[in-house]
Specification:
heterodimer, A: 500 residues, alpha/beta, Alpha-Beta Plaits, TIM Barrel, 2 domains, three-stranded mixed beta sheet, 15 helices, 29% helix, B: 376 residues, alpha+beta, seven-stranded antiparallel beta sheet, 28% strand
């Protein structure tokens, strides 16, 4: 059969620099680099290259680079190279196209169209190097009323809350989609940072139970790895209804990533694709969600907040309102640009909406209905920097989840090939040889560094606004102005345009 | 002011309070007799004159408590009208809900520096028993909603004082001129608070001057808060409409919500809006730590950041409070049964040259004084 598909990238080897040490050959799990002993030459099979930069980064002679191929189809703005190749690929296999990580399509990034305020003259900015700057955050339902006891102490209805030292958590990424060393790095970093990581729907490896105080356990439609000890192992339970990268369908773990340990943790057979049902088969409507929320609360003695995670879809405000009345303590919303370990490409690239619009719509709706304090609000789906965090909180979020930035900190180069299971960086793979490449002792420190750096930047920006407590930033939309946005976009975001 | 004068003095509505958010710097002062002695209002006028440079002539005002001993149980409505039509409409609205015992123009005098005054009337009334019997709201809430209705629905009318046995007197001008304009030399009360305004907008609307009042609460405030929109959006969840877009308005609503509706003690209200830092809370003994953690968490969006000093007046009490970093000056003093608070010590010494004690209250530490209860 003719292979219609030409490589996207070309490996360029500078022969003057190359010392033929063959590190590239040994490092590339995709077997791009090969050494021909007879001719004493190194050559590359470009068709296998995913552009993950492992060889480039490790080449001691700095002799390698990867470039986008200039080989091209006749240019068309309509039938682009990607479209043509996808059609060839489907004609070859008859299958649904799979891809990984967040959509590469250029949907508007509203974070980049909002500007942050700062103090001048009429009130002072606050210097975070010299004054206390508070970013501690509580997530969960808040009581409304206080009763005084005779001794002057107060009595309030207690709801379980999560306490975060900084308003950033690690998104759900399952053991299976990522490696044990990646999970271990996340867990240890969460512990050091005073925040939480999230197991995803892959259960919890027995070696990670000791990080219980910084763990959120997830219950998804496949119910993989769910049992009583697991539910009680975390500080909160997240019901995953949907994910920003693939609204409307369930999780997808290719069989080649399911080895003995993943199989035992997930409680599923080795080597079979783990495809979660699209819906939870005990939740066909909002009143069913309430029953699952309370089943989980019963199972954990009402001691743990329940998070309901949903993908941002068109009717998000009404859905969130329903969830806020379902007994859930926290709503997590994931936008269209959110990452994934494997998703059908068409769904990833076309279903859902940007998190910024979903967040603004939900926060406004919950306030209009007077139920904003019933729930904490966590957003995810491409929070790329501390500035995105500040903007999310000013729009109304309590905290954010980060996934892709955490993986980048661990060495991910966003080659978007997680579903292949051959991650050269030891993150999105279960191949023991590859997993060993990710050293959790180093990985967790890099995660700690990243989140600490963001926290410092958040404090700097808050101080500039004259705000010394994160709760005074939350929902403080006057601190944002739009730039280059239409009236309608400004209306939905609930902000004014720059200059107004 | 007649229509001809009005045309001359007409301000650009575009920059009025409510149409645009106006930060503003200020001078404040207040004093309170714990024994309930009737203190002269003129002291407040004199004290404000000493802080002349903290105002810019775009607003001044005073609030007095215990000033209407002849009508102690009547709501005293002070209302600005732009024209006679607004007055007629408002009066007919009030008369079907309140039994009005007395109505009059508030006595004023011509003063150099005060111009563009609206029609200023006051009414003493009690809620009609019939209305009280039929409303689902409690009486205070009903009165509060009446005021909000007049201020938002009747064009050209603005209720700027609505408590019992208390009153607000305010206008555009320097505070000492406003005091003279309202003939405050004729008034006495157990508590007075005062405000001189330094807004960053140009027009100056009489309704936009301070103190800001709702029922018996009055607030004078100096500062610009950076938490404004977080506070405003939280209050709007609970049905408050922030129509003036000023800091003072939202602070008043926060206190009304926490103290009147949620029955929080004022010292705890202070701990919500200017709480100790987490690092301080963590070092407290367990009971206090738990209480402050709970309050900070449940009313997180009512924490106020940015510089402020406020004096809250209420029936039988006065509370002064600084932001937790103390980014605004505020000095307190005591002499016999009277407690003084002001932006600057010179203002206090101008009316009380030898106080028994002066101190600078720490950020977030409220100064609360209340009338001594009989028999104590």
């Amino acid at each position: 059969m003719i292979d219609y598909i030409q490589p996207d990238y070309e490996v360029v080897r500078n022969k003057d620099l190359c010392i033929k040490c063959k590190v590239c050959v040994r490092q590339c799990a995709n077997e791009v680099h090969q050494y021909d002993e007879k001719r004493d030459v190194l050559y590359a099979d470009n068709s296998k290259c995913v552009n993950c930069h492992r060889c480039v980064t490790l080449c001691p002679a700095k002799a390698l680079k990867i470039v986008k191929t200039d080989h091209c189809f006749k240019p068309s703005a309509n039938y682009t190279t990607e479209i043509i190749k996808d059609i060839y690929r489907q004609a070859d296999t008859g299958g649904v196209l799979l891809s990984s990580m967040g959509t590469p399509k250029d949907y508007p990034v509203y974070w980049d169209k909002m500007l942050i305020n700062a103090s001048q003259v009429t009130n002072p900015s606050i210097d975070p190097l010299r004054e206390p700057m508070e970013i501690k955050t509580f997530l969960g339902r808040k009581p409304e009323t206080v009763k005084y006891r005779e001794d002057g102490s107060i009595e309030v209805e207690k709801f379980p809350n999560l306490e975060l030292k900084t308003p950033i958590m690690f998104s759900a990424m399952s053991y299976g989609s990522i490696s044990k060393n990646a999970h271990l790095s996340l867990a240890r970093a969460a512990e050091q940072l005073g925040i939480f990581y999230n197991t995803g729907e892959g259960g919890l490896h027995e070696d990670l139970y000791k990080y219980s105080l910084n763990t959120i356990v997830q219950v998804a439609s496949g119910r993989f790895g769910v049992h009583e000890d697991y539910l009680n192992a975390g500080q909160a339970i997240e019901i995953k209804i949907g994910q920003g990268a693939k609204p409307g369908i369930g999780g997808h773990l290719p069989g080649k990533k399911i080895g003995p340990e993943v199989s035992r943790t997930r409680m599923i057979p080795m080597g079979t694709d783990a495809i979660s049902p699209a819906p939870h088969h005990d939740i066909y409507s909002i009143e069913d969600l309430r029953q699952l929320v309370f089943s989980l609360k019963e199972a954990t003695n009402y001691k743990k907040p329940i998070i309901v995670k949903i993908a941002a879809v068109h009717n998000i405000a009404a859905i969130a309102s329903g969830i806020a009345r379902s007994g859930a303590d926290i709503i997590a919303i994931d936008g269209i640009r959110g990452g994934t370990g494997a998703a059908p490409s068409r769904i990833r690239d076309n279903v859902g909406m940007p998190i910024e619009l979903a967040l603004a719509a939900v926060d406004t709706r919950l306030r209009d209905e007077g139920i904003r304090n019933n729930v904490g609000l966590v957003v995810a789906g491409s929070i790329r920097s501390s500035a995105d965090v500040v903007k999310a909180i000013a729009l109304g979020a309590d905290a954010v989840y980060i996934g892709t930035p955490a993986l980048l900190a661990l060495g991910c180069h966003l080659c978007r090939s997680c579903h292949a299971g051959k991650c050269n960086w030891g993150i999105a793979t279960q191949n023991p040889e590859l997993v060993r490449r990710l050293n959790p002792d180093i990985g967790y420190k890099r995660l700690v560094n990243l989140v600490n750096a963001w926290s410092h930047e958040i404090m700097e920006m808050m101080g500039g606004m004259g705000i010394n407590s994160i709760e005074a930033l939350r929902g403080n939309r006057l601190m944002l102005r739009g730039i280059g946005l239409s009236e309608k976009e400004l209306e939905i975001l609930g902000i004014k345009h720059a200059g107004e | 002011m007649d229509e001809i004068e009005r045309m001359v003095n007409e301000v650009d509505e575009k920059y009025r309070e409510g149409n645009v958010r106006i930060p503003s710097g200020c001078a404040i002062c207040g004093y309170f007799s714990k024994k309930g002695r009737a203190l002269p209002a003129i002291d407040a006028v004199d004290a404000m004159a000493y802080m002349h440079d903290r105002s810019n002539g775009l607003g001044g005002g005073f609030a007095g408590y215990g000033i209407y001993p002849d009508f102690p149980d009547h709501y005293a409505f002070h209302i600005f009208y732009d024209n006679e039509h607004a007055r007629e409409e408002t009066e007919s609205f009030l008369k079907i809900r309140f039994d009005i015992s007395n109505m009059e123009r508030i006595p004023t005098k011509k003063v150099y520096g005060i111009s563009g005054a609206p029609l200023i009337w006051r009414y003493f009334g009690r809620l009609e028993p019939e209305v009280k019997a039929h409303t689902e709201l409690d009486e205070e809430e009903y009165v509060c909603q009446t005021v909000i209705h007049i201020n938002t629905k009747i064009k050209g009318a603005y209720v700027f004082s609505s408590g019992k046995n208390m009153g607000v007197f305010k206008g555009v001008g320097f505070p000492e001129d406003v005091g003279e304009y309202y003939r405050l030399g004729d008034y006495k009360g157990y508590c007075w608070t005062a405000h001189g305004r330094y807004p960053t907008n140009t027009p100056g609307w009489w309704g936009g001057a301070h103190p800001f009042n709702i029922l018996n609460y009055t607030i004078v405030h100096n500062g610009e808060i950076s938490s404004y929109d977080a506070n405003r959006r939280f209050m709007e969840i609970y049905g408050y409409k922030c129509t003036l877009l000023t800091d003072t308005e939202v602070i008043t609503y926060i206190i009304d919500y926490l103290n009147r509706k949620r029955k929080l003690k004022l010292e705890d209200v202070a701990k919500v809006i200017a709480p100790p830092f987490w690092s301080q809370i963590e070092k407290m003994e367990e009971k206090e730590r738990e209480k402050l953690t709970t309050l900070r968490n449940m009313y997180a969006s009512l924490l106020i950041t940015g510089p402020f000093s406020i004096i809250l007046g209420y029936t039988g009490g006065m509370m002064a409070l600084n932001d937790r970093l103390k980014l605004r000056s505020m000095v307190a003093a005591e002499k016999d049964d009277v407690t003084y608070v002001a932006s600057e010590e010179c203002a206090i010494r101008s009316i009380c040259p030898n106080p028994d004690r002066t101190w600078s209250p720490a950020g977030g530490e409220p100064v609360i004084v209340e009338l001594e209860k009989e028999g104590r």
